[in-house]
Specification:
This protein is of the alpha/beta class. Helices cover about 45% and strands about 10% of the residues. Helix 2 (about 35-45) links the parallel strand 1 and strand 2 (about 55). The two termini are about 20 Å apart.
Length: about 90
């Protein structure tokens, strides 16, 4: 499993929809504590707009360690095709 942050690849100025588009193009899963990504992913689901996958966690409901364990479980258990256009909530 690899991880990158927007500031590491010069994407920190992109809007939430642009970040989701970028990760879809790159075949990446987007993980966020930011509810704005959740709103954008649900909008795309409702409008039939494809995106790679969003894993969302509320920052007060799960620890960073639990997020890492759950993300690893997701990465091992499902293919990118199985996760496409889905929102996964953590903790599992």
């Amino acid at each position: 499993m690899t991880c990158s942050r927007p500031r590491e690849d010069s994407a920190e100025q992109l809007s939430d929809p642009q970040l989701l588009d970028r990760d879809t193009t790159l075949g990446r899963v987007l993980f966020s504590f930011d509810r704005h990504f959740l709103i954008e992913a649900v909008r795309r689901q409702q409008q039939g707009i494809a995106f790679s996958h969003l894993t969302y966690a509320h920052p007060l409901q799960v620890s960073i360690g639990a997020c890492i364990q759950d993300l690893e479980t997701i990465a091992k258990a499902a293919s990118p095709e199985e996760m496409a256009n889905r929102v996964q909530f953590l903790p599992l």
